[in-house]
Amino acid sequence: MPPSQTALDLLQAIADELQDGPLTVGTMFRSPGLRTGSKIVAFLGSGGYLIVKLPMVRARELIAAGAAGPVTMGKRTMREWVEVPSAADPAATARQWTELTREALEYVRSLPE
What we know:
By secondary structure, the chain is of the alpha+beta class. It has one domain: Alpha-Beta Complex (Aspartate Aminotransferase, domain 1). Helix content is about 40%, strand content about 35%. The protein has three helices and six strands. It has helices at about 5-15, 55-65, 90-110, and strands spanning about 25-30, 30-35, 40-45, 50-55, 70-75, 75-85. The chain has a six-stranded antiparallel sheet with strand order 1-2-3-4-6-5. The longest helix has 21 residues, at about 90-110. The termini are far apart.
């Protein structure tokens, strides 16, 4: 199922807000997403999820708290990726997705090329 227009608009709004360096909107894994340079930061998953790359410890915290779920590609569960559902309240979704994308951007930028 393709991402909704609301999710696409929110992704663009997040990109605009976090635009303090090279952050581009493009296609990742056949879905709209954000990258800095050649590194993927976040992308929209099916079913209204935002998928972000975070440090493994932080990803585990979010999963344990029930705020996110693990991401499995094929048969492999990705250790640093989590999927975050949208909230019932669009403003809450915007706040949560923006903050998690900010964390992901900082993390991805800290990784060596």
